[in-house]
Amino acid sequence: MKSLQLLLGLLVALALGSCVRLPMPNPSAPADYLFSEGFGCDSLPYDIRWWRHFNDPLLDRLEELALKQNLDLAEAASRVEQARLNRKVVMSEYLPAFDFEVEASADRTEQTGVVQNYEVTPRMSWEVPLFGALRSARRSVRAQILQSEWAFRGVVLALTAEVATTYFTLLACERGLHVAEQTYFLRREAAALTDSLVRYGMESRVASDQARSLVVAAAADRQQYRRQVEQNRLALTILLGEEPLDFSVAGWGARLWLDSLPLQVPVGLPSDLLGRRPDLMQSLFSLEQAAAHVGLARAARLPSFSLTLSGGIASDALKGLFTGDPWVWSVGGSLLQPLFGFGKLKAQEKIAREKYYEAMFAYRESFLEALSDVDEALVAIVSYREQVERIRELVALNESIARKSRALYENGMSNYLNVIDAERSYYTSQQQLVELLAEHYIAYVNLFKALGGGW
User: How many Å apart are CA 38 and CA 267, to the nearest integer?
Assistant: First the structure.
């Protein structure tokens, strides 16, 4: 009795010693974002697909198509299913194992003759999980499943953001091509007029060459923007999970002027990111899994208890298996305590702890990066908004200067060099406005992505 009490006391002491105490990450969140003035205080809702804030039916159709067909998304979904199935594999290691054996043998010696032996034996073996091993294993597989699920959400967010970014980039390239082609044809007309003036001796060859140089420059830009349109169109088809398709995007760039920017984006509080950003949640469950591995490493240093039970029927004749009393059984148990392994198990526990600290630091760093992502997107939106308005004014002014410079030149009151400078400034400011409009839209895309999206 005293021996049993001593053994129970020892097991309780070992169980208490197996409890793993680890520091909590507890990242500190600021009260507000640096550049959130003018944005909503509520959190971005989960029950709406974030891209619908742009009120663009074409973008909506592209996003829905990507969610149905994208292959990266299919791969991520497969990884989630693998993690769920792996739970059964891991948990089975801590449950009893059953097997069944049928054996027949015959031995012959001169003294005994032929001796037959028949056995039908089912067996059960179980390494009883002690000292939190089962709890740690469950914790580990649960964390793995949740990691894969949040990784899937991360793929969804990255995919939808990439589709939107590629879409707005494609709009900018198509609009840039439109401006380049329009400028090309206008410059060809101007060059033809200059050639006629040269033929009548009213202008020098220098002016004719200058006019043609503008035509050549615009022709080169046409090819540049056409190449960019095709490259982004092909990139979009890949994101949609389709083979390269030849579809027309003519006129798409005009959508940049529809002014469909989100009127209000609810950014919420910085602390909201901890529960909605897929990368942060994935990092959190990676930390959870690392903590579980520390528990498993600690349990490996403590005693393990194995239980074996077998029973069945045995006889020296085949018919004896079904007559008489052929039943046999046996039961056994063992307690194994690691004694000396040159510090291997202790070092493995220390390694597991260091991996936990590594995951904790990575989690904290991910949160800081998330805060920075939101602030960068906010300041980009505010600055692009102001910059776009100024460039709009610049385009209007350059258009007026170009028109007046051409009128002065045609009336012989200015040289062609002034026309060239005015045309170049007008063309450059037009292309700059197109690029800024697209960047403004993409800044909103980056904000939705930084906030963790919603779907």
Answer: 10
| pLDDT digit string, tens, across residues 297-331 | 887 777 766 667 665 555 555 555 555 556 665 66
Q: How many CB atoms lie within 10 A of CB 298?
A: 23
CB-facing half-sphere around the CA of 241: CA atoms within 13 A: 16
CA Rg value for the chain: 37
> CA-to-CA distance for 152 and 179, rounded, in angstroms?
40
Side-chain half-sphere of 106: how many Cα atoms within 13 Å? Answer: 5
> pTM for this one?
0.80
The first and second tokens of residue 7, run together, are: 């053994």
**pLDDT one-digit tens code per residue, 188-245:** 877 777 777 677 666 667 777 777 888 888 889 899 989 999 999 988 888 888 876 6
Nearest to 124 by CA among 415, 390, 388, 333: 333
In the structure encoding, which two tokens stand for residue 5, read together? Answer: 């009490």
Judge whether 295 and 139 are in contact, CB under 8 Å.
Answer: yes
Measure the CA–CA gap between 341 and 331, rounded to whole angstroms: 30
Q: CA–CA separation, 208 vs 301, rounded Å?
A: 89
Task: In whole angstroms, give the CA distance from residue 13 to residue 7.
Answer: 10
Q: Which two tokens stand for residue 68?
A: 């149905």
Buried b (16+ CB within 10 A) or exposed e, 106-116: eeeeeeeeeee
What are the Cα distances from residue 65, in Å, to 56, 162, 170, 229, 238? 14, 13, 17, 20, 11
The token pair at 243 is 């083979």
Residue 104 three-state SS:
strand
